[in-house]
Amino acid sequence: MNSIHIFKVEGIRGEEIDFSRYKGKKIIVVNVASECGFTPQYQQLQELYKSFNDKLVVVGFPCNDFGGQEPGTNETIEAFCQSRFGVAFPMAAKVNITKAPTHPLYEWFGQQSLNGVMDTEVKWNFHKYLLDEEGHLIASLPSAVSPLDDKVLQWLGAL
């Protein structure tokens, strides 16, 4: 249970996102929102995804739990992401993180007993989780940490 590779989640278009397909790649999982002060991070996440797609996948999880900043439907969220930021990385269907029922992946992130590494708490939109090529949780980064922060770039081997 200590690898994200056991999870399959619903994609924004109803397709299945199977994390086992990402074995051998680093993963950034980020909860996203269209009406947040951190929304411009979509552009930075897309830059990372485009620049490092041979060894990295980014997966966005729209969520309306933080300030009601993602009120849209899956369809409007996807259209916004593509038209404003050219998002090409996988996007999950809208999820709950702090409200019941909490998405199972975010339960896994939150509990050391499940992820094997640490207890974490998502406090706002654009909280980032970094996972290694084996699907193990490496870091939990708060919203204010840019996707292009030196910590992330070092983790990717870009610095």
Protein model, in words:
The chain is an alpha+beta fold. It has one domain: 3-Layer(aba) Sandwich (Glutaredoxin), CATH 3.40.30.10. Helix content is 25%, strand content 18%. The protein is built from 5 helices and 6 strands; from the N terminus they run E-E-E-H-E-H-H-H-E-E-H. The protein has helices at residues 41-51, 74-85, 104-110, 112-115, 150-155, and strands at 8-10, 16-18, 26-32, 56-62, 128-131, 137-141. A 4-stranded mixed β-sheet has the order 4-3-5-6, covered by helices on one side. It has a two-stranded antiparallel ribbon with strand order 1-2. A hairpin with a 5-residue loop joins strand 5 and strand 6. The longest helix has 12 residues, at 74-85. The termini are far apart. The model has no long low-confidence stretch (mean pLDDT 97).
